[in-house]
Design goal:
Layout (H helix, E strand, L loop, with lengths): L4 E4 L2 E7 L2 E6 L2 E10 L5 E7 L2 H11 L7 E6 L3 H9 L3 E12 L2 H4 L10 E4 L6 H17 L25 E6 L2 E9 L6 E7 L8 H15 L4 E7 L3 H8 L4 E11 L1
Parallel strand pairs: 5-6, 11-12
Antiparallel strand pairs: 1-2, 2-3, 3-4, 4-5, 6-13, 7-12, 7-13, 8-9, 9-10, 10-11
């Protein structure tokens, strides 16, 4: 492709690939910009620059050429980076609390939590793919009819090809009367296992299924020598906040998803 150049003084901004920009000063790369399309179709942008002026130059070069809306995620404690994105016109869309979750049943108080009557719990990787996909679709339809799946983290949103549940081996499930009624997603490839989603069918909620699933998964992690897991919770999700804080999870930080429309 043809490179586009934007100059001001010694800094040269060059689009080096379809989704990459470089800022160069005196033959040194002093900033980079990247764009990626998430599986759900949303476009996320990131800029890493040595100085605020370089950030601004990269933003000025990138934003006119990109379709809107654009999204980015920022650690809320990084006030300088927040300020940079706000100067570029981005505004806050949603906040995610980052929790550190203990796994020891003596700490969580979940050691004596049995599943509700008639409910069977299946550990991570034990659920059958067909019933799990059926439950995933039911829950997604229920959420879409309420707050909408756009309020869910990007990893939980459907891909452009319509696929939703991509890796059944990452899920635990709760079964009742021959069908799955609840699920929990656990990612284990990170330094600290991460609980990405807990969901129960609407007609089976408020019966302790989510709490029993969480107890089952955390106990398994504890038996494996893992002391803590992590979880991200939308600040507007009062039920999830109460669930995690009720078992001794502590807030370790927060991320803001920003958007430019």
């Amino acid at each position: 492709m043809n490179s586009a150049h934007f100059t001001s003084g010694p800094v040269v901004i060059t689009r080096v690939a379809e989704s990459q920009w470089h800022a160069v000063e005196d033959d040194r790369t002093v900033g980079r910009g990247d764009v990626s399309r998430r599986p759900d179709g949303r476009i996320f942008i990131s800029i890493d620059a040595w100085h605020d002026t370089v950030f601004d130059r990269l933003a000025e070069a990138m934003l006119p050429d990109l379709p809107k809306p654009l999204h980015t995620v920022v650690d809320e404690t990084d006030l300088d980076l927040m300020s940079n994105w706000e100067r570029a016109g981005f505004t806050a869309r949603r906040r995610e609390w980052d929790y550190v979750v203990p796994t020891d049943p003596k700490v969580t108080g979940l050691g004596s939590v049995p599943p509700p009557s008639g409910v069977t719990l299946l550990g991570v990787g034990e659920a059958e793919e067909g019933p799990l996909r059926t439950l995933d679709r039911v829950i997604r339809d229920e959420v879409e009819a309420a707050v909408g799946w756009r309020e869910m983290p990007a990893e939980m949103l459907p891909r452009l090809d319509g696929a939703t549940l991509r890796d059944p081996s990452k899920y635990a499930a709760a079964a009742q009367s021959g069908e799955y009624v609840g699920l929990l997603r656990l990612a284990t490839m990170t330094r600290r296992p991460r609980i990405g989603l807990i969901a129960v069918r609407r007609d089976r909620q408020r019966r302790g299924i989510a709490r029993a699933l969480l107890a089952h998964v955390l106990s398994g992690l504890h038996r494996g020598g893992i002391e803590t897991a992590s979880a991200e919770v939308n600040e507007s999700n009062g039920a999830a906040t109460a669930l995690f804080e009720g078992i001794g999870a502590r807030r370790a930080g927060s991320n803001l998803e920003l958007v430019l429309r």
